[in-house]
Amino acid sequence: MKPHLYPEQQLKRRAMSWAVQIRVNPVGMxxxxxxxxxxxxxxxxxxxxxxxxxxxxxxxxxxxxVHELLHLRVRSHGKRFRAMLSAYVPEWRDLDAPGxxxxxxxxxxxxxxxxxxxxxxxxxxxDIPGDRxxxxxxxxxxxEG
Length: 145
Fold this sequence. Notes:
The protein is of the alpha+beta class.
């Protein structure tokens, strides 16, 4: 018989499964009452999710989880970030955030500016190996399964 998990524990388990797939290792993961965002990733590598994310559709949960975990690799919302997000959650642009708009990990909210891949020792995205179509190797591999 499978032990019963609280909803936050189930979501944390799914988030850790995504972390393995994305190949990131958050320093910590927690749930808090967040009114203005669905989640955030601290510069120190701790990922925090809104408590009410637990009651949302699983596809939306996956979007928020992947979004925040990808910030452990790419801090900004630039092209590289969006390409990686699309590789893991292809339908992310079609997902609607439930309830009132939230900043942070809100659907359709993006920053601009230079992005840095924090997993590649400070190399800019153009220095990261890719294929002839300029698709980063890790994004191509994620798409291929």
